[in-house]
Amino acid sequence: MNAATSLVSQGQDLLARDAGLLWHPYASLDAGARYAVTGAKGVRLTLEDAHGTHEVIDGMGSWWSMVHGYRHPVLDAAAHAQIDSFSHVMFGGLTHAPAVELAERLVAMAPGDLSHVFLADSGSISVEVALKLVLQYHHARGHTGRQRFAALRGGYHGDTFAAMGVCDPVDGMHAAFARPGAEQLFLPRPPAARLTVEGSWEFDAAEFTVWETEARALAAAHAPELAGIIAEPVLQGAGGMYVYAPAALRVLREIADEHDLLLVLDEIATGFGRTGTLFASEWAGVVPDVMCVGKALTGGYLTLAAMLCTPKVAGALDGAYGSGSALLHGPTFMGNPLACAVANASLGLLTGGGDPRAADAPWREQIAALETGLREALDPAAALSSVKDVRVLGGVGVIQLHEPVALAEVTAAAVRQGAWVRPFRDLLYVMPPYISSRDEIRLLGAALVAAVEHVHGS
């Protein structure tokens, strides 16, 4: 049996063994996997199914996290070096160089005075910790009646229970679950916006005024019960790759300040350059009280996230208001040295080891090239009658249809054209690795346009 035959057999065997054994994200147990991954390097995956081998560009960036590509020599070296030292140690009462260095890097990169760091297992857990912190902050100040959060319609913040509670209760993915704890307040979704090629934001000013008036009125009516506001800045990911004007963030910041609320921004998907600024909140010049980051943090190698907060927030728990208290969360793998070491290497690649906001920081050039490439590559989709909208923001490209995507058919058609994507709702979108070349983005876009045309028509 030659190597090619052996590889195909391996992939088919994995698919057969997986079927009915493993759950996959947002799928029934019998749905199984569509393809087996037998290799990955750079921006490409090697997939196997019953029809053979497919080499595809990973348009999903491994769910938005693999920003430097697969098998990156710098990240590989960081992982190997840390394994040769120690791969894990409890964080309770102990510390280590990778965690301290990572916290220092994050504080140096973060906007404003976000200067205290909690290292979490995943993005959802960082949101859980953020929500706990906000409640403890108010409790420490004697505001025990502040138990609710205001969140935006269309928002998504994770799949754990407290995070589910601040996700859109109707249009989200958690409608089947009873809401735990206090019922949250949902502000209307800000009107859609678009970033032009020239760098200005376009949106309907009249609609924005209506939104602002309603948001301010709702918050004011419930202010004594509210502890904080949580939002994904500028880009709502799982809520439909929905882009709204940065001006809305400034309104949320003003509402929070007016009613003594804490502003929590979920930068898990948008952080580290993805939207064209280092953090999406910087489009608005807004600094949150609490910020969550994840996904690209380790370059997609290991699960890790972080919650950052200001001294004002941390000080409440540390006795600034007369009551010292621990932040009541402590995961077993908190501050995992292996994940922290790779995260340090990943952030080093993004910044080039220098000022992350410098004009020559590597992420800037990469995202600018991605944005230009995606605009050119996806533009032909706008001519298809099946397409409702085409939009690009930084390293995010979206084709929105007039109807729900035929998931299986479009995925298979894209794979045949050389691209891996995972559509949802009426969206075919990409968030590719930052290192993708112009030719790779051109191929990716052509594959998406061809898949839409083949399945949904021209």
Description:
It is a single chain. With 458 residues, the protein is α/β, with parallel strands linked by helices. The chain has two domains: 56-65 and 361-456, Aspartate Aminotransferase, domain 1, CATH 3.90.1150; 76-351, Type I PLP-dependent aspartate aminotransferase-like (Major domain) (Aspartate Aminotransferase, domain 2), CATH 3.40.640.10. The protein contains 13 helices and 18 strands. The protein has helices at residues 3-18, 61-64, 73-85, 97-109, 123-140, 161-165, 205-222, 247-258, 311-317, 337-351, 362-378, 407-416, 438-456; strands at residues 36-41, 44-49, 52-58, 116-120, 148-152, 185-187, 193-195, 201-203, 226-231, 235-236, 242-243, 262-266, 290-293, 305-309, 387-393, 396-401, 419-420, 427-430. The strands form five sheets. Strands 4-14-13-12-9-5-6 form a seven-stranded mixed beta sheet, sandwiched between helices. The mean pLDDT is 94.
Give me the CATH superfamily of the largest domain.
Type I PLP-dependent aspartate aminotransferase-like (Major domain)
Q: Radius of gyration in whole Å, from Cα? A: 22 Å
The percentage of residues in β strands lies in 15-25%
What's the β-strand tally? 18
Tell me, rounded to a whole number, the average pLDDT.
Answer: 94
Instruction: Name the structural class.
Output: alpha/beta
Q: Label the CATH architecture of the largest domain.
A: 3-Layer(aba) Sandwich
What ranges have pLDDT less than 50 throughout 5 or more consecutive residues? none
CATH class descriptor name of the largest domain: Alpha Beta
Q: Ends: how far apart?
A: 43 Å
Estimated helix fraction = 25-40%
Supply the number of structural domains.
Answer: 2
- CATH fold annotation of the largest domain: Aspartate Aminotransferase, domain 2
Number of continuous helical runs: 13
Strands side by side in the biggest sheet: 4-14-13-12-9-5-6
Major pleated sheet: 7 strands, mixed
- Give the CA-based shape: globular
